[in-house]
Amino acid sequence: QTPISQLFSQERPLLSVEFFPPKSDDALEKLIESADDLAFYQPDFVSVTYGAGGSTRDRSAKACELLRDEHEFNIMPHLTCVGASRDELAVTVNGLYESGYRNIMALRGDPPKDSPSFVVAENGFAYASDLVAFIKELHPDISIGVAGYPEKHPEAADLSTDLRNLKTKVDAGASFITTQLFFDNSDLYRFLEEADKLDISVPVIPGLMPVLSLKQVKRITSMCGASLPAELEKHLNLAGDNDELVRQIGIRWATEQLQDLIEQGLPGVHLYALNRSDVATELMSAFRSSVE
Ligand code: FAD
């Protein structure tokens, strides 16, 4: 397992893919099978999300292990502060380290569904920056990724406040930033300009998610605060119930975003592939053509 911070010196941009742990063990096995298709495109790292309130913790760990052992992917397990004390977090971080992982995506996490706002666990952490500092102290050689929000985090008053908080995470020891999904690259470019003014100098990997249905994208954007450009929404509305057409529109939009980001010299692209190897492989293939 290689610290991601060591990969940015390579000449071409990095490619990463995010999985979420499926709800059943059968589905988990299927995910591992479909990862075969992705292995062909040799992602530089693969990240695995961590469920709120412990709901998917064991499956997250199992998914990391299987993806690493079956495909030798460089893994970035996600970790959140939700419902965990410092001692519990130390056990998890040490366990990941002893299992050989050298990357962690450090997050505050979202509140569980039945709770309207984030609650700090007893003897736990209020912000991702606290978790970053904690991991750094335990294992300075772990490469830590943190979340950035091109359209600001939903709880933040404005982008500049959110960016100051992002700067705290970087100063605490984060090696790079992966962004929340966005559909308009100009939002990312504005975010980068503002981040630059605050001397946030670690690499920023933009996160892309292809739209697969209007319902799905409305649910996701309402949760994460990303906006849906009117032009994309218009195309999706015209496609209506034609699922295949919607899929094609979503992949074409994300591909155009990806090509523009590579042209602009971004240090990598992160794909929210929604555990769908068909979607991921189309975008990964577009990535390979763009960088070669
Ligand atoms: P923080 O950086 O702590 O920020 C949370 C809020 O607090 C922001 O509004 C920020 O501006 C504010 N803030 C930060 N520091 C301070 C401070 N010192 N004082 C005052 N305000 C402050 N969620 C999961 O549950 N599991 C996952 O695996 C997961 N993976 C993700 C991967 C990526 C790439 C992204 C972008 C998000 C992911 N999330 C995941 C969602 C994330 O947990 C939520 O967006 C969460 O609400 C915020 O997490 P954070 O790490 O950005 O928090």
From TrEMBL:
<comment type="pathway">
    <text>Amino-acid biosynthesis; L-methionine biosynthesis via de novo pathway.</text>
</comment>
<keyword id="KW-0285">Flavoprotein</keyword>
<dbReference type="GO" id="GO:0005829">
    <property type="term" value="C:cytosol"/>
</dbReference>
<dbReference type="InterPro" id="IPR004620">
    <property type="entry name" value="MTHF_reductase_bac"/>
</dbReference>
<dbReference type="InterPro" id="IPR029041">
    <property type="entry name" value="FAD-linked_oxidoreductase-like"/>
</dbReference>
<protein>
    <recommendedName>
        <fullName>Methylenetetrahydrofolate reductase</fullName>
        <ecNumber>1.5.1.54</ecNumber>
    </recommendedName>
</protein>
<dbReference type="GO" id="GO:0106312">
    <property type="term" value="F:methylenetetrahydrofolate reductase (NADH) activity"/>
</dbReference>
<dbReference type="GO" id="GO:0035999">
    <property type="term" value="P:tetrahydrofolate interconversion"/>
</dbReference>
<dbReference type="InterPro" id="IPR003171">
    <property type="entry name" value="Mehydrof_redctse-like"/>
</dbReference>
<comment type="pathway">
    <text>One-carbon metabolism; tetrahydrofolate interconversion.</text>
</comment>
<keyword id="KW-0028">Amino-acid biosynthesis</keyword>
<dbReference type="GO" id="GO:0009086">
    <property type="term" value="P:methionine biosynthetic process"/>
</dbReference>
<keyword id="KW-0560">Oxidoreductase</keyword>
<keyword id="KW-0274">FAD</keyword>
<keyword id="KW-0520">NAD</keyword>
<keyword id="KW-0486">Methionine biosynthesis</keyword>
<dbReference type="Pfam" id="PF02219">
    <property type="entry name" value="MTHFR"/>
</dbReference>
<comment type="similarity">
    <text>Belongs to the methylenetetrahydrofolate reductase family.</text>
</comment>
<dbReference type="GO" id="GO:0071949">
    <property type="term" value="F:FAD binding"/>
</dbReference>
